[in-house]
Specification:
- With 365 residues, the protein is mostly helical.
- The chain folds into two domains: 238 residues, no CATH class; 99 residues, abc type-2 transporter like domain (abc type-2 transporter like fold), CATH 3.40.1710.
- The chain has 14 helices and four strands.
- Helix 3 links the parallel strand 1 and strand 2.
- The two termini are 22 Å apart.
- Its main location: membrane.
Length: 365
């Protein structure tokens, strides 16, 4: 029986790798996302354009504009000549933020008086605009304190744990290990049974000496193997190419990948058992992946979601695996720290595999 199972696994791997197109579909997304995500998927604001309407023209206002232009966020500053131009540059998306400096700015700063400046931000890009506004506000407040010869009453010393320089790649790349693993494992598994139905070999599979459990195992293991290889490639690139620190152990990372892959193949086989052809399986996989990524905590903290969505997130395997991978990379997780997230993955795997097995039996009769 084991020899027949290995034969089925070998058949699945041959079906995946027999054509150059299939091999490209397995390799190209990994390389593409590895090159694009660390640079494109970032919430940092850099190389943005700031528009300034300087009504003062004094030495203080000119120095303030120079300080704003010296920041990494605003290497380009547009000097405006009217209040109407502020609205126009925002409408045309020529600037992310527009600031109006009042006429008496230099005089009030010299006299130690408070100054009110106007800022217009592009609400269509609210997140980036708010971050840019925070950068500009910090520069303006520091400049005003220096000019008025006032020191802040207290100084808050900030220490960034696990990511001292707040490198965004340290956040993106561990999460990318989880996302790439999801794509590879889910797609390979979901298309497996659907491909057999589409090619007319599903009935031959049913009359083979293999039991339904062995058939499902033969369909599940190739997907887990593909996900494991893809995840290891991303993890290795994160450490050796992008210099993300790896504080945990390789063994725990592989074990957690296998547990996560087991939970994914349950969803994949369930989708495959419900699909009559590969197109339906592909659409089903996409329908699962989109909410899985949104509810995982990668795009927004789970704590900010309403209670019903937090409950749904608890059964999303990606939300647990992202916590494990980040913990292994940045916190040096051991098995004890990872176990609170590992056992939900095993519970999800047991539930989805059992449901997929029942659906497989129902569709096979």
């Amino acid at each position: 029986m084991w020899q027949r199972l290995f034969t089925l696994i070998r058949k699945e791997m041959q079906a995946l790798l027999r054509s150059p197109q299939s091999r490209r579909l397995l390799i190209a997304p990994v390389l593409l996302q590895l090159l694009l995500f660390p640079f494109a998927a970032t919430l940092e604001v850099k190389n943005s354009t700031l528009a300034v309407f300087n009504q003062d023209g004094g030495a203080a206002s000119i120095e303030l504009v120079q300080r704003l232009a010296a920041t990494q966020a605003f290497p380009q500053v547009l000097m405006l000549h009217s209040q109407q131009e502020m609205q126009q540059v925002i409408d045309r998306q020529q600037a992310l933020l527009a600031i109006s400096l009042p006429q008496d700015l230099s005089r009030k700063l010299a006299a130690g008086q408070s100054v009110a400046a106007q800022a217009i931000i592009d609400g269509r890009r609210s997140n980036s605009a708010q971050i840019a506004y925070g950068y500009a506000l910090q520069v303006i407040q520091q400049f005003a304190a220096e000019r008025s010869h006032q020191l802040p009453p207290a100084k808050l010393v900030v220490q960034n744990l696990y990511n001292p320089n707040l490198e965004y790649r340290w956040f993106v790349l561990p999460s990318l290990v989880a996302i790439i693993t999801t794509i590879g494992c889910l797609m390979v598994t979901a298309l497996s049974l659907a491909r057999e139905r589409e090619e007319g070999t599903f009935e031959q599979l049913l009359v083979s000496p293999l039991t339904p459990g062995y058939i499902m195992a033969g369909k599940a293991l190739p997907g887990m193997l593909v996900a494991l290889v893809q995840g290891c490639i991303i993890a290795a690139a994160a450490v050796w190419v992008y210099h993300v620190p790896f504080s945990g152990t390789v063994g725990l990372l592989i074990v957690s990948m296998l547990c996560y892959g087991l939970s994914l193949v349950g969803f994949g086989l369930l989708i495959s058992a419900l699909s009559s052809n590969q197109q339906q399986a592909f659409l089903g996989s996409f329908a699962f992946m989109s909410p899985a990524v949104i509810l995982s905590g990668y795009m927004a903290p789970v704590e900010n979601m309403p209670l019903p969505l937090r409950l749904v997130s608890a059964v999303d395997p990606l939300s647990h695996f992202i916590i494990i991978v980040k913990g292994i990379f940045l916190k040096g997780y051991g098995f004890a720290e990872a176990w609170p997230q590992l056992w939900p993955l095993l519970a999800i795997a047991a539930s989805t595999l059992a449901l997929a097995y029942l659906m497989f039996l129902r569709r096979s009769h």
